Transmembrane protein
Amino acid sequence: MPLSEHEQRMLEEIENALYAEDPKFASSVKSRRLGKADGRRRLQAFAVFVIGLVLLVGGLAIGLKVGGFPIVSLIGFLVMFSGGLLALWGGGPPSRGAAGPAKGKGARGGRSGNPGKRSLSVRMEERFNRRFEQE
């Protein structure tokens, strides 16, 4: 179920507040998101996965065993696994456009003088109180 416009705005405000409070933490969390690989990275991950699959099946077909263990197939599995991780994690740093909060936006459209100086809990409490005053 998609988020409503109000929920999306609130999520953006929380994200912007997080960037204002601790930009280093926020950028590290943003860079660790899963499923954010671009098209080129996905293609590379798919190619690595296919190479691993070929090694896995080829290792069983040629029957090369070291100490009774199919070593080529093991290497193929590890290559396949790394291809899956590459697709999942996306690899590399996040794109430049998604690395920071939107510039020029203060809390609630710039109503307050300097929103970065107040603590996150104080701003969230004020928003909560404003919501009930409007009803």
